[in-house]
Amino acid sequence: MPLLFIVSALLTLLYATPALAHVKWFVPLGDHHGADAAAFSLADPAVQAWALIAVALVSASVYLDSRLPSLPLVDSKVRHLLVDLLRTLTGLSLVLSAWSGSLIAPHYQWEGADVGFLLALEALVGLMLLFRPLVFAASLLLLVLYGALALRVGGLEVL
Q1: How far apart are the first and last CA of the chain?
Q2: Could you tell me if 97 and 104 are in contact, meaning their C-beta atoms sit under 8 angstroms apart?
Q3: Which pTM does this prediction carry?
């Protein structure tokens, strides 16, 4: 099992994929700057230096994690406060995103018959997250919303 994990991790790391996740938020949709990304390769000294720095940082964190003492968990009152804060902020983010006409992220703005339904579903999920008893139902509806977006724009685009 560890060998399979190591092989799959190495294949994942060595497989080249475009890194355009947040570029969509800041660059107009028609502009593609693929030539800039193609200018770098694993043979470049700068890429090798940053890869070495990344490996050194990960190695140092693994070494220090085994040597440093573990911190005690936060008491349950503070933990519940943080969970409630994150739940509330996520709900408000979804409501405000639906209000502005965006689906989940700022670059998902379309027109069509189903967009109104998806925006209403997003707002409903956001409102449900504001009320603690409805969190489980909100999480299920959030999966439905992501599934509908994946059908509309493609599975990899939504991730």
Answers
A1: 28
A2: yes
A3: 0.58
